[in-house]
Amino acid sequence: MAKKGRVFSGIRPTGRAHLGNYLGAIQNYVALQDDYECVYCIVDIHALTTVEDTENLRQNTYEIALDLLAAGVRPAETILFVQSHVPEVMELHTILSMVTPLGKLTDLPTFKEKVRQNPDNVNYGLVGYPVLMTADIVLYKTDVVPVGIDQAPHLEFAREVVRSFNYRYHTKVLIEPQMKNTIYPKILGLDGKEKMGKSLNNQIELAATPEETTKRVREMVTDPARMKRTDPGNPDICNVFTMHKIFSPQSDVDMVNVECRRAGIGCVDCKMLYARNLNHHLEPFRAKRAELASKPDLLKDTLNDGANRARAIAQKTMEEVRTALQLP
Ligand code: SF4
């Protein structure tokens, strides 16, 4: 079936993915492959803007690659590669920075947020982050970028940079990427309050063992009104029930919905039921991940192959860019 165009998306190498990553970005990555030619990039250079200690960077890159492949990214058709393996992106970043007003970059809310988070490390790369992101997107002649609502201003920014470049150099070589609005569900962490994330240590990793997963599920915060086993609860405000609705069969969801309200099921049993269903759901993922992890050379070959295919597109784009700029 003919594909609708090329999708590009970057994912940061933050190590093993958790359920929030899975239900947000990763499942979407897998689904997009059916309709689009997909280019997925593990953005290790972006990570350098906030990561000072790179000791785990390589391992974290491999971990996220394993997660993507085990979840269903198909490397025979999809280009999966590491950002730094295609250095043309750095050249395009420098060229695009010439058509990007500095004030626009420092006005971006995400930049101000990063400055608040890392006041002692406001580096030049942090300011230019959206320009590098634009270079990532346009280097691969991307038609469509899936973005959540919070990322929409960044894509609009990228489109402006493309327009400025094409206008200044009287060319059409760079494509203005279209936005594909994507609703990423907000998955709460074990605390039931904050978004799931590593920084808060409230996550459940996809690659955790069944035992580790069950232990983490036991730590989940439930309806605080259930002080005793005999207190009725309200599943509508309980994160365990939210997760049941995602990972449990409908019969279990219906049972918990009724029994929680009349104290017919205790929270411990309810969590154990969720843990069993979650572990069952993740079984094929874990098996595939373990198989891939046992062949590190295959993983490296896969990423090298992705980089070769990405570089072929990148080199052609850069030839066109250099011609447009009349670089000798
Ligand atoms: Fe939450 Fe289940 Fe306890 Fe109800 S029984 S409060 S849904 S953990």
CATH topology of the largest domain: Rossmann fold
Judged by helices, strands and strand pairing, the structural class is: mainly alpha
Specify the biggest β-sheet.
3 strands, parallel
Overall average pLDDT: 94
Number of strands: 5
The radius of gyration over CA amounts to: 22 Å
* Small ligands present: iron/sulfur cluster
Low-confidence stretches: none
**Helicity level:** 40-55%
The CATH class of the largest domain turns out to be Alpha Beta
> What is the CATH architecture annotation of the largest domain?
3-Layer(aba) Sandwich
Q: What's the number of domains?
A: 2
- DSSP helical segment count: 13
- CATH homologous superfamily of the largest domain, by name? HUPs
Global morphology: elongated
Order of helices and strands: EHEHHEHHHHEHEHHHHH
Task: Give a brief description.
This protein is 54% helix and 7% strand. With 328 residues, the chain is mostly helical.
Provide an overview of this structure:
By secondary structure, the chain is mainly alpha-helical. It contains 13 helices and five strands. It has two domains: 6-187 and 296-325, Rossmann fold, CATH 3.40.50.620; 208-289, Orthogonal Bundle (Tyrosyl-Transfer RNA Synthetase). The model has no long low-confidence stretch (mean pLDDT 94). Bound molecules: iron/sulfur cluster.
